[in-house]
Prior knowledge:
Number of helices of chain B: 10
Number of helices of chain A: 6
Distance between the termini of chain A: 30 Å
Strand order of the largest sheet of chain A: 1-2-3-10-5-8
Oligomer: heterodimer
Amino acid sequence: MMNDMTQIKHHLTEPLLMGYAAGTLPEAFNLVVATHISMCDDCRAALAGYEAVGGEVMMDTAPVDVAEDALAATLALIDGGKFADKPAPVRTKDSVFPGPLQDYVTGDIDSLKWRKVGGGVSQLVLKTSKDASVRLLRIPAGTAVPDHGHRGTELTLVLQGAFTDEEDRFGAGDVEVANEDLHHTPVAEEGMDCICLAATDAPLRFNGLVPRIAQRFIGI
Amino acid sequence: MLTETTTLRKADALPVPSTYDGAKAQLKRDARTSKVNTELTTKRMAWVVQVYAVRDNQDRAAFAELFGYFAPRVKSFLMKSGASPDLAEECTQEVMATLWNKAHMFDPTKASVSTWIFTIARNRKIDILRKQRRPEPEDLPWGPESEPDQADAIGLQQETEQLGQALATLPEEQRKLIERAYFGELTHSQIAAETGLPLGTIKSRIRLALDRLRHAMK
């Protein structure tokens, strides 16, 4: 799918990998983590490490007695076939959207129902649990996203193209993890539209009056 | 170190047993020829053999052994993660049924059985306790066709055992922090907070164990 996997320079942070392994992140963050891992073998191996920690933590808990008939009940579940292995979801290999994202987005870049958010930038909000939100952003080549800060944590994963901000350049597969300290103005590189998957656990904070008013209507 | 490599190569050359009894016998042979971590890794390899027996022969005796060891720990993990005893009981049975049904997906060169069961329990926790969809990474192209290499499997099981031992030797207070992170008592922002805990505690030995584990998986 990605030809430039080895070029990934910006990876997931350890708290995110640990949170994904533990199953404690909001769904929106899980989606960004799972999508990055589909593009990044380093983070996949790191995640497996944190899952192994989880396994050992579980092994180390004081065992709790299960019901007397628990084994028989489980074998009955197995015989009933209710937990039979479901076929894996159908996923396209050559999509700009890695597998986990395909479960949330139907179609390709040009067939999606993008909504303009100003300055040529469009977005598509994906449906997840309410504790955080995640959207696809389409930033036309050469365009800047309005300067904004963050109240919580914001994860921005590049799926196509690249952007540059005050921190660095972020290309396909790179993920930027921003917190309250970062005010940035990402600018999409010339050449092709930059498509990002961005998740946040708090509303973004735009600097400047017009973006702030717009924010009220578009719900970023 | 040299001995280790030699004996692992030898194990590698042995045919993969197709039956539970055959596998148990081979395990005994392996334990005799191998000079490394025999007892503890043998426990982990025994779990692997039990999962294989479930996969290949729908072996209920092997399943009962796995159930007896893991089900009370899965239930404990779920209760510590906030499930009521009744819900934890129900989920535990579902987790163990999933183990049966997904036995063909298990790869001992990628995970210890304890790690694998943990991920099944974690997934059930997200589905049932947190009522969320659960985005999963794309599978890597490995599957039942290519039988995993025995030496790789033993290596991975050893590294996981060493990780477990490194965790067990942490000072009580630090170990509790890591547990709380996995039980969901710490949010990711608390984990990320500048105190660096509990990640700050994942230093030295655990960091080393994690690095070795990563290496073993590649």
